Amino acid sequence: MAAMIESRRHKFSGLKSDQASHTGLWLDRYLAKQIQRGEKLEPKEEKPLVTVMSQAATLPLPDPYQSFFTRWEQALATLGAQCRMAQVLGRMVVGLGDESVLETSVALHHTYGVPYIPGSALKGMAARYVRDRLDDTHWGHWEGEGDRKIWVAGPGYRVIFGDTTSAGYITFFDALYVAESGHKNDQGKHQALWPDVITVHHPGYYQGKGAPADWDSPTPIPFLSATGSYLVALSGSERWLDATFDILGHALRELGIGAKTSSGYGRMELEEKLVDPIQTYVQDLQERIATLSIGRVTNDINKFYQEWIQLEASLLMRQRIAQAILDKVAQADRVKASAEKSWYRNLIACVSEKGGQ
């Protein structure tokens, strides 16, 4: 048996993975042992790094995560963001080269320890797709040669991604993991993270120690890759959101996100536009107000106002309903009679508020 170095504090030496629920904490703090330099393992002995990653991959989602995810969806709806699901086609590894106490890393939510895709990664991948595949006067073009080659952003590129003088008008939110969407394990349970391995076949060559040879001993390096579906959300100018999602969908399928994309990792399928229940409700409310007969305005307009008061939606959506009510009051020739009413002034204040147009 190899005499490996103890890595945990003695107080936690007996802690088992089934007592944990935060994958990031388990990876950072609970490596049991470390192999000493030059130390050889027994033939059937597993490397401690492989063990801790296998344990981390099977940790369940924290109980509060689903409630957090629901609150996140509600917050996105309030901001007027559009959401779509993106399904990993195989495996994905984001953050592989980030700083870590282990040799490899993976992007995990700081609070809940579940895999996610940073919004900055989505934006960077989409921008790269535009630079590589959409070289024209609208999106931009390359100038110069070799090391002096620079990208000159066009108007479309500047609106979505920005440039060195201004930020873009589209916000890319972090894409959160959808519970119970990962691949199923042998027990039939959905698992977001899975043990994986990178094999370095010529470690000496990569360290500058001579040419690669057939007798070099390969070095397997364990890491974690992710599966499942992720909620992708964008907000900003509505006229540009569909174009941004279109670019993002092509980029996810053709380029992939994260590390090892040349080996097929990171490919995702972006689903069609999701039905937003808040937006659907707002559209229905607008239609009901528009079809209200003139003779029923005096009796029924307050009911629509009460629905507007309770509406938890973006400012833009609230302004649309407020304007619809005001228009109906005007059609019924009730402006003069309503002008001093508190409900009428509240609607006027909402429509006049900046930021929603």
Question: How would you describe this structure in keywords?
Answer:
alpha+beta; elongated
Description:
The chain has 357 residues and is of the alpha+beta class. It folds into two domains: 62-197 and 224-270, no CATH class; 277-352, no CATH class. Helices cover 38% and strands 16% of the residues. Strands 3, 4, 7, 8, 13 and 14 form a six-stranded antiparallel sheet that branches. Strands 1-2 form a two-stranded antiparallel ribbon. It has a two-stranded antiparallel ribbon with strand order 5-6. Strand 5 (140-143) and strand 6 form a beta hairpin. Helix 1 (23-29) runs antiparallel to helix 2 (48-57) and helix 4 crosses helix 7 (238-254). The longest helix has 17 residues, at 238-254. The model has no long low-confidence stretch (mean pLDDT 84).
Summarize the structure.
With 357 residues, the chain is of the alpha+beta class. It is built from 12 helices and 14 strands. It has 2 domains: 62-197 and 224-270, no CATH class; 277-352, no CATH class.
Biggest pleated-sheet summary: 6 strands, antiparallel
Tally the helices: 12
What is the share of helical residues? 25-40%
- Main structural class: alpha+beta
Elements, N to C (H/E) = EHEHHEEHEEHEEEEEHEEHEHHHHH
Strand tally is: 14
How many discrete structural domains? 2
Give the percentage of residues in beta strands. 15-25%
C-alpha Rg (nearest Å): 27 Å
Distance between the termini: 70 Å
* Outline: elongated
Are there runs of 5+ residues with pLDDT below 50, and where?
A: none
- Calculate the mean pLDDT score and round it: 84
